[in-house]
């Protein structure tokens, strides 16, 4: 039976419980980050966690609860669905293949996937990576919360080919390719297919052997069609309209094939911090390809080849990505020199938008004492 909760309950009694307050021995910077994490929960989350790594060591905090109608603390090293942070892993593998001269950024989609995309000869691998292909995003073609029909596909296994077909049945977001920016998950489904064409192995296998195993990311996985969360985790929820009102439905278990190469991965704050440090530290890509990754596809856009960036309140630019897997939201950023990394994850309650509170947390973590 589907477990549901009234959003109003989530907004009041349950979320009055805050777990993981900073200890008396915490530094002023740690206290500040914990306070901002509490603000994230107050802004619209059931629970949240953060891990900060810098030259002084590692510090983590949690806030809120791991499950509605309980006082169970959020597991500090808990797993979560990372959503579009998966794109940074996929992009890293694609760029490694470029470095091996097995793939070129200016190769066309048609060259690797003949007949899959209309006018695929005009769309390049680079444009898939930086969202300038103009390909329609497949996600709006699917029912989404709070529509009740969203739950009809919860356990369905989707193929990349099925989802791409749904996308290309719609006209491009703009033309010609490369002339503008429009975020498209479709592009990353195609990148996953191209990686398989180049290597003879799935993108998941390539991420496993090129990134996960070498970096010892023990709590990171690509679940494919498995609905399970393999380790300790907070429960995640989505709002669904039922009987004339919206209720939170437990959506922790779901078939992640609908996210595919654009968002299926599961990880932890610890593993994401380790990955970003290795990427920006030059352990995964040579300098010239890391520079390509940091080059925007369109002027004034803070997005390169699977990598985003933002400027903090103290003027420090940080690189990484964020992800929205509906029941889980996450952020993973690091300074360009790799000396400080911050990863944040939350389970939203949809009372409000926690983005501003997360930005404040990132500013505190990167700029505070």
TrEMBL record:
SUPFAM superfamilies: beta-lactamase/transpeptidase-like
Protein name: Serine hydrolase domain-containing protein
InterPro entries in the cross-refs: AmpC-like, Beta-lactam-related, Beta-lactam/transpept-like
EC code: 3.1.1.103
Superkingdom of this protein's organism: Bacteria
Pfam families found in the cross-reference section: Beta-lactamase
Domain Beta-lactamase-related: from-to ranges: 42-359
Key words, A-Z: Hydrolase, Signal
UniProt GO MF annotations: hydrolase activity
Signal peptide per UniProt: 1-26
Keyword set includes Hydrolase: yes
């Amino acid at each position: 039976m589907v477990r549901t909760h009234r959003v109003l309950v989530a907004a009041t009694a349950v979320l009055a419980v805050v777990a993981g307050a900073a200890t008396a021995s915490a530094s002023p910077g740690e206290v500040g980050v914990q306070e901002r994490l509490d603000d994230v929960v107050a802004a619209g989350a059931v629970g949240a966690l953060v891990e900060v790594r810098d030259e002084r060591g590692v510090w983590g905090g949690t806030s809120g609860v791991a499950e509605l109608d309980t006082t169970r603390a959020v597991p500090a090293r808990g797993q979560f669905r990372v959503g579009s942070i998966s794109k940074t892993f996929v992009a890293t593998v694609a760029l490694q293949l470029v470095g091996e001269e097995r793939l070129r950024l200016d190769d066309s989609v048609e060259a690797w996937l003949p007949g899959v995309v209309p006018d695929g000869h005009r769309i390049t691998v680079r444009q898939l990576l930086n969202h300038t292909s103009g390909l329609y995003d497949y996600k709006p073609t699917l029912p989404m919360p709070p529509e009740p029909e969203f739950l009809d596909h919860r356990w369905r296994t989707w193929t990349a080919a099925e989802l791409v077909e749904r996308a290309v049945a719609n006209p491009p977001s703009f033309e010609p390719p490369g002339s503008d920016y429009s975020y498209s998950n479709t592009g990353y489904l195609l990148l996953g297919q191209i990686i398989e064409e180049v290597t003879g192995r799935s993108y998941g296998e390539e991420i496993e052997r090129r990134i996960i195993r070498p970096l010892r990311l023990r709590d990171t996985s690509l679940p494919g069609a498995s609905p399970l969360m393999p380790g300790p985790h907070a429960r995640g929820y989505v709002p669904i309209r039922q009987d004339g009102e919206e209720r939170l439905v437990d959506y922790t278990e779901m078939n992640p094939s609908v996210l595919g190469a654009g968002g299926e991965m599961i990880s932890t704050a610890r593993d994401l911090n380790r990955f970003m440090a290795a990427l920006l530290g030059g352990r995964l890509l040579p300098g010239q390809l890391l520079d390509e990754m940091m080059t925007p596809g369109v002027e004034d856009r803070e997005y390169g080849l699977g990598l985003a960036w933002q400027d903090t309140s103290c003027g420090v630019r940080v690189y990484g990505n964020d992800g929205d897997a509906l029941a889980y939201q996450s952020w993973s950023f690091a300074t360009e020199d790799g000396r400080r990394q911050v990863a944040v994850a939350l389970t939203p309650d949809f009372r409000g938008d926690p983005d501003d509170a997360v930005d404040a947390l990132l500013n505190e973590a990167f700029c505070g004492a």
